[in-house]
Amino acid sequence: MANATPAPPPDPVPYIPPMSSPAASPNGNVESLLKEDRVFAPSAAHAAALGGAFCASMDEYRARHARSIADPEGFWGEVAADFEWFTPWTRVLEWSAPDAKWFVGATTNICHNALDRHVLDGHGHEVGIIWEGEPKGANGTPEVKHLSYGELLDEVSRCANALKSLGVKKGDVVTLYMGMVPELAIAMLACARIGAAHSVIFGGFPAPSIVDRVLDASSRVIVTCDGAWRRGQVVPLKKNVDEAIALLAAQNHTVEHCIVLHRTKNEIAWTAGRDHAWHELVGAQSAECACEAMDSEDLLFLLYTSGSTGKPKGIRHTTGGYMVYTAYTAQQTFNLRAGAGHVYWCTADIGWVTGHSYIVYGIMPNRVPTVMYEGAPNWPADDRFWEMVARHRVTHFYTAPTAIRAFMKWGDEHPAKHDLSSLKVLGTVGEPINPEAWIWYHEKIGHAQCPIVDTFWQTETGGHVITPLACATPTVPGSCTLPFFGIDAAVVDENGHELPANTGGLLVIRKPWPSMLRGIHGDRQRFIDTYWSRVAGMYLAGDGARRDDRGYFWIMGRIDDVINVSGHRLGTMEVESALVSHEAVVEAAVVGMPHDIKGTGIAAFVSLGPGHAPSEALKASLREHVSGFLGPIAKPDMIRFTQALPKTRSGKIMRRLLRDVAAGRDSKQDTTTLEDFNVLAALRGNDE
Ligand code: WT7
Q: Under a CB-based contact definition with an 8 Å cutoff, are residues 515 and 461 in contact?
């Protein structure tokens, strides 16, 4: 099917030296990532326990990676042949930087590959989603639902018909602002089924975040819930939507319909004609709804993420390449296999890309049940996750370093209480994992039996781009190891020249891959400026990195004004704009600071207008104010009041100085006011 383009010479994949055994792992603190050299090699026993390896050795990895780079069309054409397409492609790839088209001319539907296909193949009775609610009943057990592919197909079709009955058509953008209930996955698949793009907004965001995203996407239909359970409390989702709709109306944008799932049964306002109860509207529909034939490059979803400027970017992902890449990475990275008794649980919220790709779209086509949990990891007690691993016999567990650090703090007795023997593969994502947390995860959760895949990727990459493969890659705590198939990753200087081993530089990807972002919604220039300009012709990830002597990648953190708070991406400018919108604030500068659990905490330096004096009460009010714009995640961990911000002669805020100040002081010992930046600046020299 594919016309191979002339093959460039294969890139050498670095030599991997022989591995020591995991038994060699010492416990305790590790002073420096740079000194980390413990190596954990997967064994044949791992592969056997998983029902066989999809990639069984480094030799195999190297051969397949080399081929994927030399002949991407041949490679991806073969991978894509495992999916069902309505019409075939004429070419696998058309690339004119920065624009990629994958599986050109083909049509398919990702919902068909996630659901219909399994039902047609006779697997309709198998479980697709295992959902667990947060509250526990009087008898101490939570609500659990096992939804089969057949049931999911019916409910998705009903939801699709409901959307159609409200006038939603192919190409429209439907906003989903819900808790972690099965209906969120159902609504996503329903949108995909009829060719509407979805824009999922994380349920932890407040009304102003909804306003920005709905406006940017010109979305006229919102699906929400009355509320969401979080740590025993109700997050008032519908109330936030009502507030957002009123703010939108003031900007002449009409939200025509709002579908409301009743979950928490809190009291909500109701606008007749506009608001529709899920159980009435969806419940009344037929369970027959044909899949729309989607062009491979038709929009599947928008997902907003923070960047260097104040406005979040709507990252565009399309149908065919995203489907192939997310499902294939899920299979290869985690070694996920249908019919092998696997139960996969990713603890992320679907409001982030991790949930899109590795709770829903990448997992369901693999026909392995995906666990969805509604609530908090420490509700009602600190062992909730381990209780769930045991209850559902989870084999694959995927979480974030910030969560692992919290588990460590809560104490070893919580995982020790539960039977974790079902676990076979552990994963981490979101930020660099410190070796101490890695070793704890390996020993206390994996009982030294489970490979850990530290998956590096981004909203923009759609799926894993640098990651170990569970049964093939020897791992080193703190390193995300090697590029996935088809990924030509490198560490380069500003001119795009590859740097020698152990030298920090810019992380880039030099060739297109199927699930790469197709743009920023409505902002072509920003797409080009952000990703394709600093190093000509290469995708700039926005992270610093180095490779070690083995060729393994070590991510060193963002190179832009983006910080990673508990694995959630936040633009420092977003927090600054929220702060200056407070009546007391004249100017604000926000930087990241080290934080034990969050990885990066938020430090804000604030100067006040006349008539406003520094106080603890004002700090509290500023924190609430920021939370009202950006959600609780964005609350500053430390606020320092200052007469003026330190600036260079050209008026640039001296962020490095602020970062040093923030890093050097314990927020508990804070004096409320940081008096004299000028003295500090003079001591250090005006060097920024
Ligand atoms: C940024 C992307 C991909 C889903 C979660 C975050 C950081 C992500 C790792 C990792 C080191 C990581 C990077 C990246 N990051 N995974 N395994 N090791 N850093 O998605 O919100 O788009 O953030 O998260 O800084 O650029 P995102």
A: yes
Query: Between residues 43 and 96, which one has the greater pLDDT?
Result: 96
Does the bond joining 98 to the residue before it have cis omega, within 30 degrees of 0? yes
pLDDT over 70 for what percent of the chain? 91
What residue owns the CA closest to ligand 1's atom 3? 458
Q: Taking the model in full, what pTM does it have?
A: 0.91
- Nearest residue to 195 via CA among 145, 236, 160, 156: 160
Q: Are strands 228-230 and 233-235 parallel, antiparallel or unpaired?
A: antiparallel
Cα 104 from Cα 162, distance rounded (Å):
31
Ligand 1 site residues (CB inside 6 A) read 305, 353-354, 429-432, 454-459, 480, 541-543, 555, 558, 564, 567, 569
Report how far ligand 1's centroid is from the alpha carbon of 174 (Å). Answer: 26
Q: Look at residue 456 and give its three-state secondary structure.
A: strand
Residue 286 pLDDT grade (very low, low, confident, very high; cuts 50, 70, 90)? very high
CA neighbor of 62 nearest in space, from 491, 502, 456, 472: 472
Report the distance separating Cα 182 and Cα 160, nearest Å: 15
Q: H/E element holding 626? A: helix 616-630
Mutate to test the pocket of ligand 1, among 313, 325, 352, 458 (most ligand atoms within 8 A of CB): 458
CA angle 518, 523, 524 (to 5 degrees): 60
Q: Are 331 and 233 in contact (CB under 8 A)?
A: no
CB 172 within 8 A of CB 196: yes
Task: Give the residue, by CA position, lying nearest to ligand 1 atom 19.
Answer: 431
Q: What are the tokens at 334?
A: 């985690």
- Which residue reads 């330190």 in tokens? 646
Task: Report the relative pairing of strands 396-399 and 425-428 from DSSP bridges.
Answer: parallel
- CA of 558, closest atom in ligand 1: 25
Ligand 1 centroid to Cα of residue 356, in Å, is 14
Report how far ligand 1's centroid is from the alpha carbon of 489 (Å): 15
Q: What are 428's two structure tokens?
A: 């981490």
